[in-house]
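Q: My labmate handed me this sequence with no annotations at all. I'd like to see what the chain might look like in three dimensions before we decide whether it's worth expressing. Could you predict it?
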Amino acid sequence: MTLINGLETDNLVKVVGQVKENWETGRTTWTASTTWKGGFKVETCSRDFTLTADEPEMLCGTNTAANPVEMVLQAYGACLSIGFAMNAAVRGIKLDDIKIELAGEIDLPGFLGLEPPENLNMDKLPGFKTITAKIKIKGDADANTLKELHEHVISTSPVGITLSRPVDIKTSLET
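A: Here is what I predict for the chain of 175 residues:
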């Protein structure tokens, strides 16, 4: 058993081999559910894990948890960190540290259903206009190898790719 970055690389290589052997094993569905808890508090669940969402006081929340757009940034950062740890491990690169700082700009008029004045150059659509991620990584590889690792991780991040393109979203309502 080879352990790099806290990951068993033999198992990682085995999973990749299984998907290569049978592409259908690579088709996965992930699920989540939410339950409103009053005000802006929402409980979110996936598998056996529960998170709470809330809004900051500036948006009339109680500031008890990250809000959904902050969770999107957190999800992207976590996905990148996991991608770095995994891809470095299978390349035999020992990482000492990964730090990622993320920021995203959202104009509130779209969320609030308002039409912003033309001179403010605000987007009337809710959602991030830009997301920046500043990645600091330390490991036992040279700068060029870490740059190649970075490019691979960015190009294979499921959360990053999801954020960067339109996704077919279907919703239904039951009353």
